[in-house]
Amino acid sequence: MYPDDLKYTKDHEWVRLKGDRGIVGITHYAQKQLGDVVYLELPEVGRKLKVQETFGNVESVKAVSELFSPVAGEVAEINAALVQGPEKINSDPYGDAWMIAVKLDDPAAVKALMDAADYKAFVESESR
Amino acid sequence: MVPFGGWDMPVEYSGLISEHMAVRHTAGLFDVSHMGELAVEGPGALAFLQGATSNDVAKLADGQAQYSSLPMDNGAPVDDIVILRRAADRFLIVVNASNIEKDFKWLSARGPSGCEVRNISEDYALLALQGPRAQDILQGLTTIDLRALSYYHFVEGAIGEWPVIVSRTGYTGEDGFEIFAPPAHAEALWKSLLAKGKDAGLLPAGLGARDTLRLEARMCLYGNDMDETTTLVEAGLGWIVSLDEAKGDFPGRSLLAEQKKAGPPRKLVGFEMVGRGIARHGYPAYLHDEATGHVTSGSYAPYLQKNIGLCYLPKAEAAPGTEFQVDVRGRRVPARVVPTPFYKRAGK
User: What is the interface pTM, i.e. ipTM, of the complex?
Assistant: First the structure.
């Protein structure tokens, strides 16, 4: 449920480090909490993001949730196919449902985020 | 689970969209025990209800139900209700969960004469079995002849050994039943309905699907689409306002009569989002760049696969085709007034 090669935030985003890029999505726990996702809003390519900055919104039938960037950098790519078919966020949160690729200001900063074991413990403490 | 009017209620079981689609295609089972029940009984019950409700109670025969409301002098409802006539002098009123105390006090304060108003909400659990397969499923558990039970009619009988009221009513836009049962047997009834309906595709359904289903069918939700500030005619509920002389006077009658004749100053309309975005309850609406009220209900509609909602617009700008905007968190997204209901089941 929480792949080992990813880093995680308390806002339930994940980051996959690929060279100088960070690929960002939301976690299995986040999609489960949201329920059926029906709408996604992503930023323009080229936008500069700070850590914790809102980079979009995801909506299920019943709720709206903001997306917070786990990393700082410039949006290099967005997953336009996911905007058209956001239900993939429920079915494949770590694969097809990547949201944005960010050219990182500081790739090393990603290491400070939670690893899978820490995130799993965090989620368990939150849902208790 | 979410707290709702003092109850812990599931928003969804297996998933809102699958529950919603189950009700449209096969069947869904809802626990709506939070709804309230008031008994109005005695030789003066009919006369009392004629003076306290907006629809014509005299039209009811034994075993018949009627959608109605408790209007105030300003033409707005204290609550919207369903009245069941159990006998000429015995009526059961089904009221919204959040309004049970308010309705009871309102009716009591009107000084019932020749009848008694009692809050018997604790006496009933309420399960709603809704969808095209509802009749087949329920028929497998009862000797009540459901084919003979028409829409907005009810029977008092039994499911197995449990005494129940089975009413052909609902809040989803589908055929279906609402089953009033003693709370002690509710869990067993819930389980046996689910077991009986399993092969047909029956799913337990939560508050979330209940809300999207009723919105597609353009059924008003009290507290969202209507409240103590919106008249019945504005809310599109003029059809539950009876001006029949035999019914006599009731609160707000003259104002409602005037609005029925001349049209209300504003109307609750259905709309579809034209631009990308989901309208939600409370989002501001703009007409020609001027604020014109708020979205009263809004959602993604799972069956229609559109983003829809309800909103009050000035009478002159309420016709289908009218374009306006919904402020979706700072972004003005175009919307268009459409005919309602958004969804109507086949053959109805």
Answer: 0.88
